[in-house]
Amino acid sequence: MNLKETVRSEKIRRLDLSFYVEVQKGSLAREVIEKMQASNRKCALVVDGIKLVGIFTAHDIRDHAQETDALDHPIELVMTADPETIDGNVYLAKAITFLNQKPYRYLPVLNKEKHIIGTLTHFAILKYISDYFPEAIYNLPPEPDLIATARDGA
């Protein structure tokens, strides 16, 4: 299967969607940030039980950086509530189009029961493509049609 066929037929639930941490509603912003740092993640999905209620990213940290006591607030006060989500059964091509039209770096992915599968990122898409088509990604120079006419330094 070639790249075009793959992005049209592969569902996003098959990608690595693990670029997040999960935290419970009521956690302090400080605790959430510590968990994100410990896990080397830049996104936290906030849940109430198993239901997604919000998302907290570096963007939210920046928005509240001037508040002196923001770290001691419950996460609900600094997160983005009711984030837009995408279904895990969406095809990769549609997801790429969706991400290109929206300003999201992290997009929660849910199954049909509305349970969290993970977060879709541009990196996850690029990693998937490069893992399955390494010959198309790794072996080409940045400008494949550019050919040196003389040796450099000669």
From TrEMBL:
Residues 79-137 form the CBS domain. Keywords: Repeat. Pfam families: CBS (PF00571). Gene3D superfamilies: CBS-domain. This is CBS domain-containing protein. It comes from marine metagenome. The lineage of its organism: unclassified sequences, metagenomes, ecological metagenomes.
